[in-house]
Amino acid sequence: MRLSEGVEWALHSCVTLAWLDAEAPVPAAKIAEIHDLPTAYLTKQLQALVRAGLVTSSSGRRGGFRLARPSSAITVLEVVDAIEGGRAGIFGCTELRQRGVGRDAPPGCFDAPCTIAAVMESAEQRWRDELARHTLASIARGIRTATPGSDDATRVWVRGRGSTPTDTAGT
Amino acid sequence: MRLSEGVEWALHSCVTLAWLDAEAPVPAAKIAEIHDLPTAYLTKQLQALVRAGLVTSSSGRRGGFRLARPSSAITVLEVVDAIEGGRAGIFGCTELRQRGVGRDAPPGCFDAPCTIAAVMESAEQRWRDELARHTLASIARGIRTATPGSDDATRVWVRGRGSTPTDTAGT
DNA sequence: GAACGGGTACTCGGATAACTATTGTCCGAGTGACTGTGG
DNA sequence: CCACAGTCACTCGGACAATAGTTATCCGAGTACCCGTTC
After folding, report:
1. A101 in helix, strand or coil?
2. What is the C-alpha to C-alpha distance for residues B27 and B49, in angstroms, rounded to an integer?
């Protein structure tokens, strides 16, 4: 019962994209370098985001990833679901009540959903509701409040280490 | 990101104990038979509940498991935490923000908790709050409402298949 | 008849394998940009 | 000077291992009960 580590990576990557993609698509290698992560595995997570329609990818020399929608229109829940594969639920009810002694019960007893499953479902819904209340934009705002200028720092850092041939050739 | 199947087993087992333990300790083999589960692995889950102090175990011929407290004083959250090992949280923040580009940030920038982690924490808290609102007693009540007489049926079924030597010898 | 001791069967408990899901890595297909040539 | 085709380097994407966590199983230690014996 632990959330995949890819969720954390994806969320940070999305925030980074929200700060950078106004300029140009950001390649996975660049995002990986920003967060000091293995490029290949991060690519895997980004692909999941593409499949979920949250980011778009472009190939070729100046290719990379960018958000498919404004950051204010992407919720944390969507990112979590994208990485986790949109699982049906945290708690998988196997209808245990209908096994063993439950087999002797008269028909119709199990029309109502399992009480235990209902409780777990309810709790999960609270969790999802809270995740849906936050968007990439609100998170980005929170980070800027906590550490002002972090977005500019990222942009400057990326441009400073930028590997655009025209820049290096312009000396 | 899926809850261990043992959680479902433990919750059903606890409800069963709530119905049966007024009479005598219930051996793991009996609980397993009630739910048609592998005895050995169910024992493992019950041991986790013992370690968490939710149920007590007694060895010997008439040994078994019983609830350590009234069913109204055991929350679903406690059972979940007992099985899941009382993990720190669903989302493990690895302080990704302090790696890569974050290394260039001035000190003191990271005094405030990570915004992303805070959101996940908040969502998890909602989840835990909801789980804490329900007790074994409330679940047992819900099951009785959905399928009246299920507790009696369980008791009768257990006694009917009871393997107490005195009963079988009394024919 | 009552008390006591030994044997027995039953219980939990922890140590030990099989399996699944997650994590990590690699190489190939595709694409857009740059360069050199011809008009 | 401009248009065009070829080449190249860089990108994503999916296929392929290593690892950790979960699931499943077994056998041993301990305990309370039952029975036979003795007082």
Report:
1. helix
2. 14
CA nearest to B5 within chain A:
A92
CA distance B41 to A78: 36
Residues of B in contact with A116 (CB under 8 A): 8, 11-12, 15, 139
A92 touches strand D (CB under 7 A): no
Smallest CA–C1' separation from A56, nucleotide: D12
Query: In angstroms, rounded to a whole number, what is the distance separating the alpha carbons of residues B117 and A19?
Result: 19
Whole-number pLDDT of residue A6: 96
Protein residue ranges contacting nucleic strand C, Cβ under 7 Å: A 4-6, 38, 40-41, 43-44, 58-63, 84, 165-166; B 1-2, 27-30, 40, 43-44, 46-47, 50, 57-61, 63-65
- Asked if the Cβ–Cβ distance from B35 to A93 is below 8 Å, we say no
Count Cβ atoms within 10 A of the Cβ of residue B150 and give its class: 0-12 exposed, 13-18 middle, 19 or more buried: buried
Mean pLDDT of B61-81: 96
**pLDDT tens for residues A113-123?**
999 999 999 99
**Mean pLDDT over all residues of chain B?**
89
Interface probe for A, chosen from B120, B122, B150 (most Cβ of A below 10 Å), is: B120
